[in-house]
Amino acid sequence: MTIKDIAESCGVSISTVSRVLNNHPDVSPKVRQKVLDAAQKAHYVPNNSARDLVKSRSEGIGLIVRGVGNPFFTQIIHAIERAIDAAGYTLVLHQISTDDDEIMAGASLARSKKLRGLIFLGGKGDYQSSDIAILDVPFVCCTYTVRFTPLARESYSSVAIDDKMEGYRATRFLLEKGHRKIGVLINSKHDRSIGELRYMGYCEALAEMGIPLDETLVEEAGSFTLPAAYEATCRLLERRGDITAVFAIADSMAVAAAKALHDKGRCMPEDCSVIAIDGLEMSSYFVPVLTTMAQPQTELGTTAVKTLVDMIEGRAGNRHILLPATLRTGGSVRSI
Amino acid sequence: MTIKDIAESCGVSISTVSRVLNNHPDVSPKVRQKVLDAAQKAHYVPNNSARDLVKSRSEGIGLIVRGVGNPFFTQIIHAIERAIDAAGYTLVLHQISTDDDEIMAGASLARSKKLRGLIFLGGKGDYQSSDIAILDVPFVCCTYTVRFTPLARESYSSVAIDDKMEGYRATRFLLEKGHRKIGVLINSKHDRSIGELRYMGYCEALAEMGIPLDETLVEEAGSFTLPAAYEATCRLLERRGDITAVFAIADSMAVAAAKALHDKGRCMPEDCSVIAIDGLEMSSYFVPVLTTMAQPQTELGTTAVKTLVDMIEGRAGNRHILLPATLRTGGSVRSI
Q1: In the CATH scheme, what is the homologous superfamily, with its name and number, of domain A3-46?
Q2: Is pLDDT at B182 greater than 70 in this prediction?
Q3: How far is it, in rounded angstroms, from Cα B106 to Cα B152?
Q4: Quick check: ipTM above 0.85?
Q5: Are A282 and B74 within 8 A, CB to CB?
Q6: pTM for this model (two decimals)
Q7: Confidence at B53, pLDDT banded by 50, 70, 90
Q8: Across the interface, which of B71, B104, B111 has its CB nearest the CB of A71?
Q9: SS3 category, A63
Q10: A252: which chain B residues are within 8 Å (Cβ-Cβ)?
């Protein structure tokens, strides 16, 4: 059974069958259903390998995701998927684990799938020019940018929030509410990526107010996981029972911190305020709602795709776009 | 630059270079680093297309995920990934949206990537034999099974919890705590899948106790999303302010239900108890911890892979495995 047979049995043109099977929008629902029924009845399977050969280098965009289960990525992935589809390309999703090298993975995927470009979702901020030389298609770092090495700005693109600035804003918000003993919950002070940047923002906000950095207020969880953040908060509370607020650098860490506060007999926000960065949908359903610097998740995804497609289609070169986070005021912070 | 060149420059064998580049474990860390450095310096990219041709039909297993951002799938995907790797196969992950046909997507992926088998994560329980005839590789339905059509049991494999039984157990738990006016929060009474099954379990538990089904206690959210579950709970509370408990068929829905209870001036569990099914990690960090029938997420993933690999390697035919959920007792249910 070929496309031609299906077209004949439905009394439509071959191009109509092709449009239906490739999910193009310009077919009436009635005809679409007729063609799909005929294709299913005939057990027709589109031969994508053959199609890939014909359309070589014409439509695939790779999305390399570090930690596909990260709830913060959910909405961004959906936005990227929709935007890639709307731009007429096909999404090739590839997940890597925390320790994998995203550049190697991306280069390998781009070559094997003949991709036109790559989006990296989650990654390191310390690429060297020799690292990225392996990539022979345009690429966009989404949710992070390279800040820890002198990588030429024109050699890559990025779409992210200003992590240092948002760490500053979150801390500043607590300071303006009267808090002075502010614990900070981070994955690592030296991750060469978003953790280090958000922590730098914390330090900067304190310095601006003339408050010396107190290392006993800084707790490293070692990762972004809930159990690690819970244990880290317990350590922080044991060492510094006098804190009135916590800046957790991610919503997921704040969720665990709130639980640790409760288990240690402290009410949030009465005894201790909590603020975070990210803006997970689920944390807006907490009681009290988590106050957080919400990242523009959908816009991060659509802007990353637009930036990449502009390069692929020759409309623009490498660009760096910083999008602002938005303060989502919940009930987890109080004035003192 | 070829593998041979890298081997010569490092003074190791070609097979050692190959093992390093394919991430095999039996290479010393020192040699591994040396080879990786040389490969990176040379901008060497493994040509997976060529490798795929050589190893045709030898190593790919496809994972079709309906809703890759579903937090419930996170741990299962990780388990599947590890198990596929340990069995010597390569994971090919493909996400589909809620409305996509997973069978068509799987058939297309299996053909284009020359896969050895497929795992469907999330799907419908009403396949016809004509639907699955399109698949020419073994496949496993993970987290669901086909209960709504008389599909021959030997024509497919499944690894799931007994959704109806767990719905029964959750409702029964509330009944044993003295609750009689139990609202049920579902996506749809007629989704031909896990929603309908869990709802059937609710009905069965009531019937067993001689309690007639009261339709005013049943609220359909239309989906599993947080906003839909929140609105549905508000409707339920407006209609039936006298309920003392809610059975939400998914943890995510229970999170939204707890928020709706709070916003309507009710305390959980003092005024209204909540129980769910799934066992998300995050819901165990709630205050109070959500009481739920926790699915064995890691075991679901590893068992799905084992079932599939046994078929691929000729050790077994199609099988159906039901794994028990475990009651995770939190603080969201009280006795009345």
Answers
A1: lambda repressor-like DNA-binding domains (1.10.260.40)
A2: yes
A3: 20
A4: no
A5: no
A6: 0.81
A7: very low
A8: B71
A9: strand
A10: 282
